[in-house]
Amino acid sequence: MAIAVAVLAWLISGDPIRFLAVMVVATPCPLLIAIPVTIIGSVSLSARRGIIIKDPAVLEQIDTCRTAIFDKTGTLTYGEPRLTEILTTPDVNADNVLSAVAGLERYSRHPLSSAITAGAKERGLTLDEATEVTERPGDGLRGIIGGLSVQVTGRGAHLARVPEDSAALPPVADGLECLVVIDGRYAATLRFRDEPRREGTSFIRHLPPPLHGISRVMLVSGDRESEVQYLAEKVGITEVYAGQSPEQKLALVRDETRRAPTIFIGDGINDAPALAAATVGIAFGQASDVTAEAAGVVILDSSLERVDELLHIGRRMRTVALQSAVGGMTLSIAGMVLAAAGLLPPVSGAVAQELIDVLAIINALRTSVAPKTLTDYRE
Fold this sequence. Notes:
- This protein has helices at residues 2-13, 16-25, 29-48, 57-61, 72-76, 94-105, 113-122, 155-161, 200-205, 225-235, 246-259, 272-277, 289-294, 304-340, 346-365, and strands at 51-53, 67-71, 82-88, 131-136, 140-145, 148-153, 176-182, 185-193, 216-220, 239-241, 262-266, 280-284, 297-299.
- By secondary structure, the protein is of the alpha/beta class.
- It has three domains: 2-35 and 312-368; 51-78 and 196-300, HAD superfamily/HAD-like (Rossmann fold, 3-Layer(aba) Sandwich); 82-193, Calcium-transporting ATPase, cytoplasmic domain N.
- It is elongated, with a radius of gyration of 29 Å.
C-alpha cells in the first residue's frame, strides 16, 4: 500500500520528493516489533508472578475460552489429603497393611501417596521394601512385598473384578478412599480427607461474564461420585463427571474443545493427555514433569489467584497489542497522507517514523509492568 500511495503522489504532483517522503514515513514496526514486545512483556510479567508460559500462544487464546474444566484433587482442593482411618478385615493388622502400602506408595506420584507415607511415619512404622512395582493409569498400584502381591486400587475397579467382595467392603463414606488387596483378597480400606480451597467458591462464581467469558464450568475427576459431588456443591459447579479414567477425561476434553475453546486445569500425571488436548492446558505445581510438559502453562504455587492473574494478563496482552498495532499503523497512514500531500518532507518523515515506532514500542512495554491489581475476585 505504501508503494501505491507513493507512486500515486509522484504521478499526481510530478514531484519525486513526495515518493521519497511517503516511503520514509511508512513503517511496519508497530506490527513487526511492537506485537512481539507485547508478548515478551506478558511472558516476563507472568514469570514474575510464578506463572511459566511454555507456549506464548495461550496468552492470546485464553481470553477466547468459553469452557473451564477442572480436575478435582490439587486444583479446587489443596491436594494435601490426610489419612484419617484404616478399616481392615479381622485377620489383617492395620500397621502391617500401612507399612506394606507405604512401601509401595513411595514409588508413586498419585496424590494419595504422600498422605499414606506421611501416615506411616506418624505411626513410627518402617516402610516395607517393594519390588516389581507397576502403576498403570486407571489400574492402581501393584508390587511384591515379602513375597505377597499387594495392590492399591479403587472400589469400583476392585468390584468390577471381584463383585462378590461387595459385602466385605465398608459402607461408602464422605472423603477419599483406596482399597488394599493382598494376594487377590480384599484386606483393608484407607480413608482420607482433602479440604476444598478457601477461595474456590468465589473464584468459580467470578468466571462467567461480565468479568470473564467462561460460560460453562465443569468438574472432572477419577474419584467417587459422592466425593466429587460434595466438592461441586461446595464451590458451585453443576456439571460433574466422576469416576473418569484418563482416557475418558481425554475424550471429554476433546469433545468440549470441538464445541468451544476450553481451559483444562489439572495437576496429576493422569491429567497430562487432557492438558495437551485442551485449547489452554494449565498445570498446577511441579508434582509431575509429564504434566508440566503437556501443559501450555505451569503455575508454580498452585493458586487459583494465579489462574485469575493469567486470565487478566492474557486479556491485557491482546488489548495492548491491538492498541500498538492499530494505533501505530493509523499514525503511519496519517503520516503517509501528509507526505503525499507535500506537507511532510523526507527528513521530517524520518523523524515522524521513528516517533511512531517508539510510541508503539513504549505502549507495548506496558505489558511487562504489573498494574495496580491483576485479579478481580475476593476470597
